[in-house]
Every structure is written in C-alpha cells, then in structure tokens.
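RECORD TYPE: inverse folding
INPUT: structure tokens
STRUCTURE:
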C-alpha cells in the first residue's frame, strides 16, 4: 500500500521551504522594523505571543511584594488542571507555576459539562493588598443551554493566600448573575463586581457590590452599553488621575474582535466612550495576528503600562490556526488625564525597557517555550505527572497510573476521543493525556509497548482540539482480509469541516513481537510532526529502528483550527466500546520545538 502520495510529499516540501524561509526572516531582528513609533527612548525587543498555544482571555497583575513578579491567568474551558497561572520577572520568560482549579472537590460540576465550548471562561486575577489574598473570578458556562437560561451561567470565584501552593486554592464560591466575564475592583473597603450580561438577551456591562466572604451580591446596575459592537464583554475597571476607566471587548471573539474603553468620574458611571475607539484591534487588516481583544492592563515596577490580550495567528484567511487563541503583550502610553494609547500587536515588538532577564521563578511547572524529553520518569515523588500535562475534564485516576520503571501505564476508556456525541463523555470520560501545542513547528512522539487481542482495542496519538475536532493515528486490532485479528494503523479525523477519509493499513507483520497468533505485541514509536504551518504528518515505526518509520498520513490542520481552545498533543487508549482492556506502557515522551512563525 502507498503510505504517502507524491502529491502530498510535494505539497509538504514546498510548504516547508516557504515557511522556513519566512521563519528565519521573522527571527532575525535586523530584518524587522519596530512595530510602532517608539513609546520610550529605551526600547526592548520581545516576541509575541508571550504565552503561545491554548492560553486565551488573559488577566495579569504585577506584585512588587512577590519578588517583583508578574502573574497571569487564562481560560481553560474543559481542560484540567484548569485556570493555568504563569509567572515572569522580565515579561519575556513565562513559567507555569500552578493551576487555580486542581482538585475535583473545588468544582465538581465541571465533570458534567456538555459541549466542547463549555467550561471555564475568562478568569480575572486580582490581589487584595490588605488581606494578602489572591482572587480569581470566572464563569463555568454550560454552552449547550440558551443564553436566556439562567442555569447556563455559574459565576464563581476562588481565593488563596499562597498562589504557588495548589491546595491553598479554595473551593468555588458561587454567586448569581445572568452573564459572564466577571471582574473585581477594590476601593474603600468595598469590593465592586463588574460583568457582561448575556448579550443575546440584554447586551451591556453591569456592576454591583459583592461580599467575598459569602458571595452575597447587591443590586445590579447597567453602567455601559459599549460602542455598538456585538457582545460587549470582558470588562475591567481601573482608576487613574481621578478617572475610572472601563476596558471592554466587543465584536465577538472572531475577526471583528476589538478592545474599547470608556471613563467616568464616578465608579458607577455614567461612562463616556473614547472617541478613538477601538483602541486595539487588527480587524480588517492583513496582519498575521487576528481576533485581538479581551485585554487587561497592568503596570511594571517602573510605572510603565502594558496590556495583554488574546490573538489568533491566522491572517485574514482564518484557515490554519491550530493553537487558536493565545496571549499577546503590547506597551501602552498613558499620559496623565488622557486616554491610554495601545501599540499595534505584531510578532516582533519594541516596547518599554523591560526588567533584566531573570528565570529564577518558583513553581513546579516549565517555561512556555520548553520542550519535553521524558524517558521514563513520568511521576514525581508524590505520584504526580508533570504540571503541564493536561486532561479533558477530570481524569479517571485508574486510566493513568505508574508502571514499571516509573513509566506511564495507560488503561483504555470505553469511549474513544469523540465519546458519546462529540460534546459529552459521561462518567467514563476519555483516556487522553496531553500537552499544549506551543510552537508552529515541532515533533511530538511517544514510545508505546502494547499487547492486544480484542477487536477495536486501540492505542494512539492525537492532535486534539475538542471531542468533535481531533486528528488521530491509532494502532487498532481489526480483522484482515481473511478474518484474522491483526494490528492496523488507522488515521481518523473528526471536525465540523470535511476531513479526509480514514486510512487503514496493516502493521508490518515483522513488527509484531508476539509468538501467539491470537495476540499482538508491539513496541512502537508514534509521532506527530508539524514541519510547516498548515499540515501534520503522522508516522510510526518500531522502537530502535527509526529508519523503518513510515508516514501514514499528512493531514491539514484546518480541521482543528476552530473555536475557543487550542490543540493538545497527546496519547490515548480506547476499547471503542468493545470488550478490550489492553494496557499500554508509555515512555520516551518527547516534544521538540522546531520553530515559531510570527509574521
């Protein structure tokens, strides 16, 4: 059987050559002019996105009392651990230092979400100086319900005295509001809550007071309706020079996304719109960075202002963007009594002078640009997998256990990755463990040792966006032409857009190490490689004989360029609803970064 057509090979070569040439250019500072006229005479060059991959809807603060550290949180939807926290001391090197949502007891309902766009939306991070307490306020959204159904919106907040210690984060405190994107503002011993009302019902930004000990809220008041763009949301309140500023997003989270701002002398309004709105957007441009919106503002230790926002590296074509919505950074000029002026978002930026490079950051996670090379030691002394490993909803502990020599033992779920209907997985969940794709070009691979004897038993690797958007290369037990069960390679894809038909081909007989004709015993390396910005190559070969590796399929990433999240790269196991229970032993987990496309 032909594994890779000449046409696909030619497409892969031409695309790779073009992208690598562009990539080399984008990484050469001498070929890039500053993105905006200088906002200061002491510029520092940095690169967007600062949090590459599935890190949308950012909210950030700067705390001198925490060793002059910046902290950011981002949306996680159905991914667990949820609400990742990143820290930096120099705005360039960002380290995963924990997750707000790290135990099922904190928010049991997340196990029951129905729809891939449900889950944790748009957290806001704030620090209360007097009580020395961190607060993260957010919404658990049941996106399958209509916006007019009040049970769609479960608004919640968490608190902690120690951001670095996972168990210090509280269980969720719930409060009632028919909307989402809540924000906290502290003044004169009171806490003000600002949020976006369900826009299909009554669009606008509303405000009230909240008791953070009980979750009790006061009467809601409409304070701003936005500038007229669709879905005013993502509000944040700031006070500067006697003015209260209200930052918001409008236009929806697609190509018309934008940042707008209003101000008032009073916290509860009336708010007047900035005549220069929108203050930040790449709508109707040819920029590679699109969908810019949902911003937050903060100062550094020198008093300079910065803004984070979400953006999608898609260009106006909006076709190939598997990392979907990421976190970008831009400098802001904010003169006394005036409106803030945001610099345009680009891949190579010139901004305020940054702190000196400093990677001495606490926390158990890795820096966002790091790769993986885990040979056997998957588990730490407490029995935990690496902090950046990610599941889809709460994991079933029995699926992911310590194997011999500290490798990962992966047991199958009855569900495959699409599960019950592409939106819901039920109590059985899915046996997938993954990490975020955080580079345009990369190679991800795992070694698997697997014995199987039942039809539809399957072990594989996936570029997984959601249950209804994923591209898989599996090794699955299927009948051959004579009816005998033998292992096959099988590519399958699920997406809202048309995907290539499945490719099924027998594993070469000499790769089967079993002496029993009724069983398969395999030691394989399974690989996903992005060698250009548009396609994944899925390959497999026997461990220790890399020269025999075969490319099974080359598939466009357009099928996983969709929605709110971002591609996860991982290994899965399933019985596909059958009787199989074959365990797999996973070792040599590698993610090798090979390039970032920014322009």
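DESIGNED SEQUENCE:
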């Amino acid at each position: 059987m032909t594994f890779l057509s000449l046409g696909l090979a030619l497409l892969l070569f031409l695309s790779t050559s073009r992208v690598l040439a562009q990539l080399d250019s984008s990484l050469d500072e001498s070929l890039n002019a500053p993105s905006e006229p200088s906002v200061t005479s002491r510029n520092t060059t940095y690169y967007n996105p600062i949090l590459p991959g599935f890190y949308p809807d950012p909210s950030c603060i700067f705390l001198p009392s925490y060793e002059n550290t910046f902290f950011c949180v981002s949306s996680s939807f159905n991914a667990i651990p949820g609400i990742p926290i990143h820290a930096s001391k120099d705005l360039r090197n960002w380290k995963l230092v924990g997750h707000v949502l790290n135990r099922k007891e904190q928010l049991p309902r997340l196990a029951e979400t129905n729809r891939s766009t449900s889950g944790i939306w748009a957290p806001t991070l704030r620090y209360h100086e007097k009580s020395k307490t961190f607060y993260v306020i957010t919404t658990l959204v049941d996106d399958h319900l209509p916006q007019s159904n009040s049970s769609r919106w479960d608004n919640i907040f968490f608190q902690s005295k120690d951001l670095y210690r996972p168990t210090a984060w509280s269980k969720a405190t719930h409060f009632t509001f028919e909307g989402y994107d809540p924000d906290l503002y502290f003044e004169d011993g009171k806490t003000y809550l600002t949020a976006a009302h369900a826009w299909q019902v009554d669009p606008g930004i509303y405000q009230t007071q909240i008791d953070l000990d009980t979750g009790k809220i006061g009467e809601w008041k409409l304070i701003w309706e936005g500038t007229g763009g669709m879905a005013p949301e993502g509000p944040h309140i700031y006070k500067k020079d006697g003015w209260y500023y209200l930052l918001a997003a409008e236009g929806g989270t697609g190509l018309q996304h934008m940042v707008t701002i209003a101000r008032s002398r009073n916290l509860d309004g009336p708010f007047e719109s900035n005549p220069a709105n929108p203050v930040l957007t790449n709508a109707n441009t040819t920029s590679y960075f699109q969908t810019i919106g949902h911003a937050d503002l903060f100062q550094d230790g020198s008093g300079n202002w910065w803004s984070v926002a979400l953006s999608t590296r898609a260009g106006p074509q909006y076709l190939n963007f598997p990392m979907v919505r990421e976190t970008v950074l831009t400098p802001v000029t904010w003169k006394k009594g005036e409106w803030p002026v945001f610099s345009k978002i680009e891949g190579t930026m010139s901004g305020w002078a940054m702190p000196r490079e400093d990677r001495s950051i606490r926390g158990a996670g890795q820096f966002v640009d790091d790769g993986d090379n885990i040979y056997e030691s998957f588990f730490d002394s407490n029995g935990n997998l690496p902090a950046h490993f990610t599941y889809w909803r709460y994991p079933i502990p029995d699926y992911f256990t310590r194997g011999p020599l500290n490798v990962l033992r992966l047991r199958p779920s009855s569900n495959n990755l699409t599960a019950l209907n592409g939106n819901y997985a039920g109590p059985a969940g899915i046996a997938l463990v993954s990490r975020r794709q955080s580079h345009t070009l990369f190679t991800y691979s795992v070694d698997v040792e697997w014995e199987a004897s039942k039809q539809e038993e399957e072990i594989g690797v996936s570029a997984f966006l959601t249950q209804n958007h994923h591209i898989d290369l599996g090794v699955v037990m299927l009948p051959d032409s004579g009816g005998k069960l033998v292992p096959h390679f099988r590519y399958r894809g699920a997406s809202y857009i048309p995907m290539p038909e499945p490719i099924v081909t027998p594993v070469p007989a000499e790769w089967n190490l079993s002496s029993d004709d009724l069983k398969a015993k395999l030691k394989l390396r399974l690989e996903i490689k992005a060698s250009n910005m548009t396609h994944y190559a899925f390959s497999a070969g026997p461990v220790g004989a890399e020269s025999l590796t075969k490319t099974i399929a080359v598939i466009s990433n357009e099928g996983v360029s969709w929605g709110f999240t971002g591609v996860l790269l991982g290994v899965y196991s399933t019985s596909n609803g059958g009787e199989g229970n074959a365990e797999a032993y996973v070792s040599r987990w590698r993610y090798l970064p090979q390039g970032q496309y920014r322009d």
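NOTES: The helical segments are 6-26.
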